[in-house]
Design brief:
With about 170 residues, the protein is α+β, with helices and mostly antiparallel strands. Helices cover about 20% and strands about 40% of the residues.
Length: about 170
């Protein structure tokens, strides 16, 4: 189940992330372990995140086996933290208007929840901040933010995940 989408303004948000490119079938197995790696790196460097972990889908490449460039990130207080590391990269989520919805349910249901958000946008004339060419789509910000702490709620069917996509303009 997902909440009715809303349009909200989000401020610019510095973050640190590990970036990877994976095929869609391997997304659920290859990307989640990067959260532990990133959290461990932040802990070793004395950096305390200022928000929950997220996945930022940056680019989708078309083809027989669709590949996704995804960042596993954590918001941090300032953009200069982590600069110079080869694996962990700093970034800034852009400020602007976002269409958001909160999905309550198993993470495997997020594909359907995302499809519902995309359908809602099409029905309501909402255009995404995305650059497309013949082979790929690059999103300004397409996020899954994990609002539920697995240590507090081990039942995956009760997890809450915010989906947020930056609107053009």
């Amino acid at each position: 189940m997902s909440d009715e989408p809303q349009i909200v303004h989000r401020a610019e948000q510095p973050y640190l992330a590990i970036r990877t490119t994976v095929s869609m079938p391997k997304l659920a197995t290859d990307v989640p372990p990067l959260h532990a790696e990133l959290s461990g790196w932040l802990g070793q460097n004395g950096i305390v995140p200022v928000g929950p972990p997220f996945w930022r889908y940056a680019e989708f490449q078309a083809g027989d086996l669709v590949e996704v460039e995804v960042e596993v990130g954590l918001p941090v207080p300032t953009a200069d933290q982590g600069a110079g590391d080869e694996r962990v990269r700093p970034g800034v989520l852009p400020a602007g208007r976002y269409a958001t919805t909160v999905h309550t349910g198993h993470p495997t249901e997020l594909g359907a929840a995302t499809a519902a958000l995309l359908d809602w946008a099409e029905r309501n004339g909402v255009a995404w901040d995305v650059t497309e060419d013949a082979t790929s789509s690059r999103w300004a910000a397409r996020l899954e933010t994990y609002l539920t702490d697995p240590a507090v709620e081990p039942d995956l069917s009760r997890w809450q995940t915010e989906l947020a996509i930056k609107i053009a303009g």
